[in-house]
């Protein structure tokens, strides 16, 4: 995995996107790269792209966009967000138990 930190993600990525994985790269906006939950989300995509290979994964992702949009509604994002949410819930539970 090659981590790249940028001030903002380039076109075609929307401004609200904080990170993107294009195997073997994970590109983070500056200041967000240490978010462990986001890292877990992107590692899910990294491993998925490694299994599928990048081009078939990306074609499937793009083909589903008109039907689901990006973000949490996209079927290829749902598992990554579930991992990210679980990570955040576990971290919150650990903070509360201190």
Indicate the topology.
Layout: E1 2-6, E2 19-22, E3 25-29, H1 36-52, H2 54-68, H3 78-96
Parallel strand pairs: 1-3
Antiparallel strand pairs: 2-3
Helix pairs in contact: 1-2, 1-3
Overview of this protein structure:
- It is a single chain.
- The protein has 98 residues and is α+β, with helices and mostly antiparallel strands.
- Helices cover 52% and strands 14% of the residues.
- It has helices at residues 36-52, 54-68, 78-96; strands spanning 2-6, 19-22, 25-29.
- A hairpin with a 2-residue loop joins strand 2 and strand 3.
- Helix 1 (36-52) crosses helix 2.
- It is globular.
- The mean pLDDT is 95.
Task: Please report the total strand number as a whole number.
Answer: 3
What distance lies between the first and last C-alpha atoms, to the nearest angstrom? 33 Å
**Percent of residues in beta strands:** 5-15%
Largest β sheet strand count, sense and barrel closure = 3 strands, mixed
Enumerate the spans where pLDDT stays under 50 for 5 or more consecutive residues: none
Query: What overall geometry do the principal axes of the alpha carbons give?
Result: globular
Q: Structural class, please?
A: alpha+beta
> Largest beta sheet: what is the strand line-up?
1-3-2
The quaternary organization reads as single chain
**Count of discrete alpha- or pi-helical segments spanning 4 or more residues:** 3
- Using only CA atoms, what is the Rg? 14 Å
Q: What number is the mean pLDDT?
A: 95
Please trace the helix and strand order, writing H or E for each element. EEEHHH
Helix content: 40-55%
